[in-house]
Amino acid sequence: MQIRLIAGNWKMNGTSDSLREITPVIEATMEFHSAVLICTPFTLIDRAITHVRGSRVTIGAQDCHPEAKGPHTGDVSAQMLAEIGATHVITGHSERRQHHRETNALVRDKATSALDAGLVPIVCVGETQRDRDAGKALDIVSGQVRESLPDVPQSGSVVVAYEPVWAIGTGRTPSLGDIAEMHAHIRRLLVEKFPGSRGGRQTPILYGGSVTANNAAEIFSAANVDGGLVGGASLRARDFLPICRILEQA
Ligand code: 13P
To answer: What's the predicted TM-score (pTM) here?
Structure first.
């Protein structure tokens, strides 16, 4: 059966007090079949992991360095994240591609280091408004999928997140037809990259970009949408929990 995953990306938000937002999520998702993940800032990962122990909720990071250790001031490696009990790491989020000039090659190295450390990389792809207006959305995403994903023969431990850059934090989302078209396109690319029975066909593809409780049911009903990567609406349990429930029931 296809893995369904709802992931919160807190971005650069959250202090110790914010951990209390995870408590209702822990309580309400105990019997869930879907996986529930929260990617906190680095500063909260350790405490968040203690907080969720014994529950369905797991904790991930938002980035990692491609190397395991070394002279990289300010960076954190996948190995370090795995050692404290993180389960996933987001790689190639568009905010890092844009603000830190991350290339597909770097994203792939980061994702590979995550796999080597035993973490599941969530590799983000997505076109800008300009790409879409120019009719290049499918091509841009093709390049990102082909070049940012690690070369593993089996992809069971990789997740892809389609996040159109213009939909992030804007309240705008693509039409259901556009989401379905892009997810089907990504599925074809994944099957091509990871053939075999447990390959690209099984790789979860998340949708991200202004997901809320109001649009989640429609988005999660689209073919090849295996869950969501949620930014702003993951910060408070009262916003995030309804989205988790919608995925569980979808
Ligand atoms: P929003 O849900 O705030 O649009 O953010 C999406 C995102 O970037 C998740 O990684």
So the answer is: 0.97
